[in-house]
Amino acid sequence: MSTALATTGAGLAALLLGLLLTEPLRRFALRHGITDRPSARKAHTSPTPYLGGVAIATATLAATAVAALATDVFDPVLGALLGGSALMCVLGLVDDLRQLSPRLRLCVETSAAAVVVLAGGHPTILGGRIDVVLAVVWIVFVTNAFNLLDNMDGAASSVGVVIGGFLCLAALADGSVGQGVVMAALAGSCLGFLFHNRHPARIFLGDAGSLFLGFTLASAMMVVHDDVEGLSGPAVLLLTTLVPTLDTTLVMVSRYRESRPLLQGGTDHVAHRLRRMGLTVRQVVRFLSAFAVASCLSATLVARGWLPPGVALVIACLVGAGAVRLLLNVPATAPASPVAEVPVGTSAADGPRMAPPLRPAGRFGRRHRPLRPTAVPHSRGARKATTLSPTAGSPAGPQ
Predict the structure, then answer these.
(1) Any alpha helices (H) in 241-366, and if so which ranges?
(2) 390: pLDDT confidence band, cut at 50, 70 and 90?
(3) Is residue 357 part of a domain?
(4) pTM of the prediction?
(5) How far apart are the first and last CA of the chain?
(6) Which residue range is the domain that position 88 belongs to?
(7) pLDDT digits (tens, 9 = 90+) for 114-161
(8) Structural domains in the chain (count)
(9) In whole angstroms, how far apart are CA 260 and each of 223, 263, 264, 270, 332?
(10) Which of 215, 299, 302, 358 is the Cys-Cys partner for 88 at CB 3.0 to 4.6 Å?
């Protein structure tokens, strides 16, 4: 089987699997109460299932395994990457069902990242063991940054499609067929999942999906660019992941300036602030996707030697700092006066009212009577407090 056929087949198969597996998993989650329930720190107003990540992980792993075996490109490096990704999905799923300690999550993420780096290599920046440490830290950071980015309908999965597509092309151009197959399958599964996750979302990724997505992209990125030296390494890595990196930076700076707990969730992300600037949910997702396309194109120029890495790093830092400064001027919480931002059961005339009471929770905290839906867009928001990444203090859970 040719490389092009295997890559295309993996992407299409994963797309179809992601599309078909999501609906039965959504029904299963609703039946067993595996849902993300509304709260004061979230934008969605009705319990929404969050097993979508299981569909993405299953579709990606299955399509990759079949295509890799058919083309005889399955090697220890690919095995380490897929094994670590599967472990992230299991870790996130367990955390979705019952909250794990931040220390345990961080230990598992670090161990899985170390296996990938030791097996697949990493860019050379300073030389020696320090590069191994930096590579592991970066994978853990990106994993948690994508966990944070999953805060609005279609945001994380759309950015995942863009980055996965660019990494697929970069891997094939570099001769890394196995990594190209993985990225094609990941982009395809995210695209299939988007049919269910686009606004208004009928299902969320959950920690199982966001951890899987972030870890797989970061690990493949590290392996594909293992022969890059000097400033080109950090420039390519930063530009490729500029969207989740900016979101994590904005949240941490905002909470620090406002003396709020860094681990406490809130609607203070890039996507939420863009909403308050007047964009619709779909416009926000398109903006983030377009920004990801531009940053990934810049990373490609650096990797091909057409753009000096030092210049690219300076531009990326200036753009990032400017964006964070601009968005910090946007309120971190929604105003109370506009009707579009009014809480559940509220009208401009009579003021806020309490939402209808819920019956006692059943298995997995199931709610037998959901809250009334309103026009407020769904968003995972900040479901729970979780762990910080070792580099930027980014929580590992969706915030």
Answers:
(1) 242-257, 270-276, 281-303, 309-328
(2) very low
(3) no
(4) 0.82
(5) 43
(6) 3-328
(7) 999 999 989 998 888 999 999 999 999 999 999 999 989 999 999 999
(8) 1
(9) 37, 9, 8, 17, 11
(10) 215
